Amino acid sequence: MRALHVITGLxxxxxxxxxxxxxxxxxxxxDVVTLxxxxxxxxxxxxDGVRVRDLGMRSNRDLGAVPRLARxxxxxxxxxxxxxxxxxxxYGRIAARLAGTTVVSxxxxxxxxxxxxxxxxxxxxxxYLRTERLGAATVAVxxxxxxxxxxxxxxxxxxxxxxxxxxxxxxxFDSAQRDATRALLGLPDAAFVVGGVGRLVPGKRFDLLIRxxxxxxxxxxxxxxxxxxxxxxxxxxxxxxVAGRVRFLGECGTxxxxxxxxxxxxxxxxxxxxxREESFGLAVVEALAAGLPVVYAACPAIEDLPAxxxxxxxxxxxxxxxxxxxxxxxxxxxxxxxxxxRRLPPPPAVDHYDIRLSSRRLMDVYAQAVDITAVPPTxxxxx
Length: 383
Known about the structure:
The protein is built from 16 helices and 15 strands. By secondary structure, it is an alpha/beta fold. The protein has a seven-stranded parallel sheet, sandwiched between helices. A six-stranded parallel sheet has the order 12-11-10-13-14-15, sandwiched between helices. A two-stranded antiparallel ribbon has the order 6-7. Helix 11 links the parallel strand 13 and strand 14. The longest helix has 20 residues.
């Protein structure tokens, strides 16, 4: 089988990084096309030996991207097209249909009222649903997202849950790496250090972490990620008098300047995900794989599993203070701080999200999609 993955952009983000990790484990010849922004993840894919092309899409209304992509699909003689993220799903499904190629799409970031961090409008949903019918299957990264797709009206038979995956071994705690990373970041050996990872955008609520650490003398904070809120968060840390105890690392793992995410997680004592809403919660699973206690506000990766699969994870914001759980977060961190830093065994949830399992689940979707679309529509209607 030969597959073409089409994605909206290849800057540093969860879906983009997940695609790179997935391609390392899929037993399929894969190329990648990005509609725009061939950023750091494109460089990483090329380093992995993956062919990456930039379609050069100029705007959301660059309709010429559709025939360009259709021609590329035909020339490549691909057995399957797999699209990722909203714009690529819309344009990619149409292009694949024009090229006569089977298409599967993954929904990475669908919230109750947002999609990929932007407000979810009726026209956005209608366009998504009209093009969704052109595909053979839609993959949800969690049962939560699958439920949202069903609520939209996507037929249940077309939805397949393939959770995001983690390279478990890459996040295994290493005490030597901890010491080296703390020295690199200027963190005291004995300090209690809180960690946060993700795009610096309002929905991630990293301001809550800064406020909580400001209320805990002696606590430090490490934020890995970049985004439009970076300046405001730095200003907040300065205003609260904790700029010296907060490390802003920017995008990690894309150059030699900043440590990778596994190294960051080795250096901290507790991980916090204060996002108001998530489609999966990959950073939480990575933190659990590193043996960290976790405090989170929303994480389908944990919430979709039976109770008890993620000991060491504490949820906040589910009660009366849901809109602003700063006090609850501060109390949870104070408890962790007073209890003393310690690593935990990776919980059963981590094994459930091993990237090798995710790749096998996706191959099952591929096989079914290609088999279904190989049957003429009249025969499918009779079966």
